[in-house]
Amino acid sequence: MKKNKRIIFATIAALSLAAPMTAVFNLDNVQTVSANHQGTKVWLQYGTLKYALRGPSGRVYPAGTKVVREMGAADTKPNISFPGRPFNLTWMIGGIPNNQRLQDVGGGQIAEAYVNYEDWQEIDYPSDNVVLVNNTTDYTDLKSNDFHPVDSSNPDVPVANLDKLNEAYANYDSAIDFSKLSKKDGQYVADLRNRYFAAKSMGATQESVDALTKEINDAVANYKKTGHLVSGNSNSGNSSNSSNSNSGSTTVTPAKRKSKSRFVKLRKASYQYTHKGKRVSKKKLKNGTIVKINGKTYRIKKKTFYRIGKNRYIRKVNVAKN
């Protein structure tokens, strides 16, 4: 969901974030259960910095600084390690039910490699705003993931500039008529989307980001010339980041899929429903969330849905076309 960043962080600053760090929620209320009941619980994972990190503002966050990351309303406990998912220096969750404006805000993205992390904890999603960690209100640091060890002898996680990649993907998204693609090009679109989001994850190298940027630009150029994203529109080649140095057009071909299951992106925030059409959570899956569907559509109360998990469905109209 879109938010006015100034309002968000002004609100954070107003919530006594300048106070010394203390426990901000009652650990007696933490529950670990085998299933996420009606989507009212969220998974949290706390950790501490292994060593001092310097942010883009120049501020140093010492070893032992407490950080947290959130996985959302998953039915099962997440894997302990999620290298692509950052921890946060400042993070606030919660809000009035059905009012999404101030839910889950903060920033200061810290790579997992810098963190001594604990096990996941599942808690009730709070109806009021709750500050989980508070280490900074500096907007330069809050909006960034560009943190590096103060001591250069400590392992460093690469931080890539994504500006050109995002520009290339936005151009690709607007230039392609996804409703008229061949089956092979459609598979390539799904593969490219997954690799695009992987390139935006923590730890992606500048080299890999630049290679994917070139591939996207080449694919768009090839589409404008031939009407196809993939040169030759055949199964030859592979789905890795590669390009034809002679023609300048992409030779990437998607990997074969064994089933109709695929990953799709939400074009707008979406509630989850049961097979009876009952909403299972007051919290929506956010715009841009990637979910896996089984490729089938279902009619529930005269509306069309995709299945994303056991007894979990989302409206088809909320899914971006590809």
Q: Could you explain how this protein is built, in words?
A:
With 322 residues, the chain is an alpha+beta fold. The chain has three domains: 5-149, no CATH class; 163-233; 262-318, no CATH class. The protein contains five helices and 14 strands. The strands form five sheets. It has a three-stranded antiparallel sheet, with no helix packed on it. The chain has a three-stranded antiparallel sheet with strand order 3-2-9, with no helix packed on it. The longest helix has 21 residues, at 206-226. It is flat, with a radius of gyration of 21 Å. The model is unreliable at 1-35 and 234-259 (pLDDT under 50).
Brief digest:
This protein is an alpha+beta fold and 322 residues long.
Topology readout:
Layout: H1 5-14, E1 41-49, E2 53-54, E3 60-61, E4 66-72, E5 87-93, E6 105-110, E7 115-124, E8 130-134, H2 139-142, E9 148-149, H3 163-175, H4 183-199, H5 206-226, E10 262-265, E11 290-293, E12 297-300, E13 303-309, E14 312-315
Antiparallel strand pairs: 1-4, 1-7, 2-3, 2-9, 5-6, 5-8, 10-11, 12-13, 13-14
Report the span from N to C terminus.
Answer: 21 Å
Listing every helix as H and every strand as E from the N terminus to the C terminus, the arrangement reads: HEEEEEEEEHEHHHEEEEE
Strand order in space, largest sheet: 4-1-7
**What's the number of helices?**
5
